[in-house]
């Protein structure tokens, strides 16, 4: 069985997240600079080797002041920890088109295991003859597990920024 390499198509991929603000609305953001690759045996994605890196400086929530705060030592500390990394430890099929992706997420100088739900959208050729594969990933992490502890108490009780971060990721890969 031969090894197949897949590289990310960044123009058709998005690394997004949502966090509750003031305990009742979501703020969405994304990373605009990232890289990812997959190595498979043939065209079967089960047990694939998956690698991801993201540029912390590229965080974008649609608000320059908030993005600057997120890059600061209060949150990501981009100067000291400029990169987010993910290395898959397993990619196992649950059902048709449904997988569980487990791996190690390195963020803010800390590496911890995470589990994400993965939906495999399938493969197809684009108009230029490239074989593409699509995936949707969803999951939750607690930002405090990676030392992102900053918060502010609200007068009405509760906190300004939730601990739970929902990951919403859409990926398209190109077969090499």
TrEMBL record:
All copies of domain Lipid/polyisoprenoid-binding YceI-like, residue ranges: 5-174
Protein name: Polyisoprenoid-binding protein YceI
Domain of life according to the entry: Bacteria
Pfam families listed in its UniProt record: YceI (PF04264)
């Amino acid at each position: 069985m031969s090894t197949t390499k897949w590289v990310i198509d960044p123009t058709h991929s998005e690394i997004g997240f949502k966090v509750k603000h003031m305990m009742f609305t979501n703020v969405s953001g994304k990373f605009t600079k990232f890289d990812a690759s997959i190595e498979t045996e043939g065209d079967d994605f089960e047990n694939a080797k998956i690698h991801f890196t993201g540029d912390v400086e590229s965080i974008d929530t649609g608000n320059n002041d908030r993005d600057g705060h997120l890059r600061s030592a209060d949150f990501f500390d981009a100067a000291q920890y400029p990169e987010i990394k993910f290395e898959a430890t397993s990619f196992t099929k649950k059902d048709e088109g449904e997988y569980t992706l487990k791996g190690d997420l390195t963020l803010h100088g800390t590496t911890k295991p995470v589990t994400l739900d993965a939906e495999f959208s399938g493969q197809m050729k684009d108009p230029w003859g490239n074989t593409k594969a699509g995936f949707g990933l969803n999951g939750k992490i607690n930002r405090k597990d990676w030392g992102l502890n900053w918060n502010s108490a609200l007068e009405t009780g509760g906190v300004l920024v939730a601990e739970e971060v929902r990951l919403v990721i859409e990926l398209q890969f190109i077969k090499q």
